Amino acid sequence: MSICIPAADASGLESKAFGHFGSAPFFVIHDPRSGKTDVLENANAHHEHGGCQPLRAVEGHQVDAIIVGGIGARAIARLNSDGVTVYRAEEGTVASNIAKLKTGDLEEITPEGGCAGHHG
Q: Are strands 26-31 and 36-41 parallel, antiparallel or unpaired?
């Protein structure tokens, strides 16, 4: 399973998990099976509301799950339709959130639980 987590900085697994998917400065993509970690800069961090392209942001990388504090309902629906499960991040690092996912301690976010806008 390849996991993507929006991050506040480019420190890999030690990065602080970022609060919102579309406006995150970086994305950390980690494959627990291989141990490989990639850090991608988010070139689309300042998009118009509703213009987030969630899979384009991580283009070229297979992602099975996203762990994020906030994400729009339409983005969740798009991700779910492409087979990506979305989980709600808890405060902490990328590594601590991955550990919580492995133990089943993160809540899955459905489109009904998504953000209604960039400020809410």
A: antiparallel
